[in-house]
């Protein structure tokens, strides 16, 4: 009874002083959307919470939920977060540190599933504009950025590090920087969107060779990018 009396006295004092007892919120450490603030979340996963939940996840959620009735499935959103964290760091320990309760084999399987899901959707989202108007729109947008006419896309190569794939052919994948890698050729549009990507070449391949062997060069040689030579007067009219 003494404890109860003390508690009631404390409540009376708090009411007289017009003070409020602060609420305590228990954050779920297994849920990065709840536990991490927006800035820390974006730093780890390279995308905002909104972009992941409402734009990226719906694209592959159906693929990741195919086997959801077996065992104790990992929710698609957590599978996606595992993959994004791994893409950002290349480190399984960083993934398991941010998403607690998952073993390394589970993380590996989820990353593989997400990667396959993205690969299956590649041609739906990565492609050059097919209509003449869309092609002209990209050229006009590039011109508005830097006043450089008749630019359909910006291309470049980047080296993606990999483990030594094989002792006999491993040196083919060693880049000029000394690491085993793939030389990735990509073309980007004026809004930062990927229009073309080629991941076939080992790290020792020169960028110009990647382009010479690419379907992208063939598109231009066969004039599939139609009416590309828009004169500057068209930009001024806009």
Question: What's this model, at a glance?
Answer:
The chain is mainly alpha-helical and 238 residues long. It has helices at 2-16, 32-35, 38-45, 49-64, 76-89, 92-98, 104-120, 122-125, 132-146, 207-212, 215-221, 232-237; strands at residues 154-161, 181-188, 194-202. Mean pLDDT is 81; it is low at 16-29.
Architecture overview:
- The termini are far apart.
- This protein has a 3-stranded antiparallel beta sheet.
- The longest helix is centred in the middle third of the chain and has 17 residues, at 104-120.
- Helix 4 (49-64) crosses helix 7 and helix 5 (76-89) crosses helix 7 (104-120).
- The protein has 2 domains: 1-124, no CATH class; 132-222, no CATH class.
- It is mainly alpha-helical and 238 residues long.
- The protein has 12 helices and 3 strands, in the order αααααααααβββααα.
Number of domains: 2
**Strand order, sheet with most strands:** 1-2-3
Helix content: 40-55%
Please state roughly what percent of the residues sit in beta strands, choosing from under 5%, 5-15%, 15-25%, 25-35%, 35-45% or over 45%. Answer: 5-15%
Poorly predicted runs of 5 or more residues:
16-29
Annotation field: number of helices = 12
> Can you count the beta strands?
3
| Mean pLDDT across residues | 81
User: What is the succession of H and E elements?
Assistant: HHHHHHHHHEEEHHH
Largest sheet: 3 strands, antiparallel
Terminal Cα span:
83 Å
Shape: globular
How much is the radius of gyration in Å?
26 Å
Helix-strand category = mainly alpha
């Amino acid at each position: 009874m003494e404890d109860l009396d003390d508690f009631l006295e404390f409540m009376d004092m708090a009411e007289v002083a017009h003070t409020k007892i602060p609420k305590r919120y228990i954050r779920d450490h297994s849920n990065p959307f709840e536990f991490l603030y927006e800035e820390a979340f974006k730093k780890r996963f390279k995308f905002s919470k909104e972009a992941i939940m409402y734009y990226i996840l719906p694209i592959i959620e159906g693929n990741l939920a195919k086997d959801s009735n077996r065992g104790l499935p990992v929710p698609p959103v957590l599978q996606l977060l595992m993959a994004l964290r791994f893409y950002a760091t290349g480190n399984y320990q960083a993934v398991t540190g941010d998403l607690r309760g998952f073993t390394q084999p589970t993380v590996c399987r989820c990353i593989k599933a997400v990667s396959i899901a993205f690969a299956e959707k590649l041609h739906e989202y990565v492609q050059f504009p097919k209509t003449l108007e869309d092609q002209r729109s990209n050229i006009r947008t590039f011109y508005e950025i830097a006043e450089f006419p008749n630019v359909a896309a910006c291309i470049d190569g980047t080296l993606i590090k990999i483990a030594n794939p094989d002792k006999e052919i491993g040196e083919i994948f060693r880049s000029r920087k000394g690491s085993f890698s793939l030389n990735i050729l990509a073309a980007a549009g004026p809004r930062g969107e990927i229009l073309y990507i080629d991941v076939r070449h080992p790290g020792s391949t020169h960028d110009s060779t990647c382009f010479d062997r690419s379907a992208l060069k063939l598109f231009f040689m066969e004039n599939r990018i139609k009416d590309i030579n828009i004169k500057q007067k068209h930009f001024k009219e806009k």
